[in-house]
Specification:
There is one protein chain. This protein has 298 residues and is α/β, with parallel strands linked by helices. It has one domain: Collagenase (Catalytic Domain). The chain contains four helices and 16 strands. α1 packs parallel to α4.
Length: 298
């Protein structure tokens, strides 16, 4: 059963916010309100409704131009899991799509706009180098170490995704306050953009929108939705100083856990987009045109 929970978070502005719940069709247990730090934007769990902050406003920071590269860091044990195949197929088909083209509705101080392109440029396996319980600092160090070791190149126009296996926790609030987050830091002398994506199998009721999914892997399919959420925001607000509203909500936050029109897959699950041979249920994002609106395409 699909749970359409509209949620939002305090991101770049570091504002904690209250929220009501819009619940369709099943009520989930409430969790404590988060207080977000200023070290990154976080995709919240399913049970929060946004307090609208109005239109997104430009705050002078950069956006990612050209064709940003995506790098996956598969953290933990992914043996016999189809997630690497599912998420790689997604990223290999996402560039140039009408979905990612929504990022081209944003611009920088010179009027330049993201291209709507992206490329999966590399992947690395990390066998619990920082254990199974990670802090925000651990995530940053995992990215830095995978670059410094040569497993992945150093790329200031890339986004590095640390994808946690089911037995990996992020102690700053995974499953309670968020399902994933993005940030940036000066690593090895370069401005590096990175994100953490938690494994929804740890908390299906909080981070999985449906118990049956188009690619027969509910956790991986749920991760796909969080990945594109964080990717869109990493492109339009990479350093947390470009595009967000007066409550700190970024482009994808404005439409969190809103999926638009859906179709039914052969296994009974819901999907709203098709990339290559795969179907996905992805969150809408905010198009910064014509007054702004949530959509799956531009």
């Amino acid at each position: 059963m699909l749970l359409l929970w509209l949620v939002a978070l305090a991101g770049a502005s570091a504002l904690a916010q209250s929220a009501s719940k819009q619940i369709l069709p099943k009520k989930m247990a409430a969790v404590a309100e988060p207080e977000f730090s200023d070290n990154g934007d976080r995709t919240p769990t399913l049970n929060r409704t946004p307090r609208s902050g109005g239109s997104l406003r430009y705050h002078g920071g950069p956006v990612l131009l050209g064709t940003p590269n995506v790098y996956y860091i598969w953290y933990g044990d992914w043996t016999n899991d189809t997630a690497p195949s599912i998420l790689s197929d997604l990223m290999n088909s996402l560039g140039g799509s009408s979905y990612l083209r929504m990022t081209s509705s944003y611009f920088d101080s010179n009027g330049q706009r993201p291209s709507g392109n992206v490329a999966l440029a590399g992947a690395a396996n990390d066998d619990y180098s920082h254990g199974r319980s990670l802090s925000d600092t651990d995530v940053k160090e995992i990215v830095s170490e995978n670059i410094s070791s040569g497993r992945l190149p150093k790329d200031a126009n890339g986004v590095y995704f640390v994808l946690g296996a089911e037995d990996v926790n992020e102690t700053s609030g995974l499953c309670v306050q968020y399902c994933g987050w993005h940030s940036s830091a000066n690593l090895l002398g370069s401005d590096i953009k990175y994100a953490f994506i938690g494994n929804p199998a740890r908390c299906p009721s909080a981070c999985e929108p449906q118990t049956t999914s188009p690619n027969d892997n509910p956790a991986a399919d749920a991760m796909a939705s969080v990945v594109v959420h964080e990717l869109s925001e990493s492109i339009t607000d990479p350093n947390l100083n470009a595009w967000y509203d007066r409550h700190g909500m970024e482009s994808a936050d404005k439409c969190s856990w809103s999926f638009g029109a859906t179709q039914t897959a052969s296994n009974g699950s819901l999907f709203n987009l098709t990339f290559g041979a795969r179907q996905f249920l992805l969150q809408e994002s905010w198009v910064n045109a014509f007054g702004g609106y949530c959509s799956l395409s531009y």
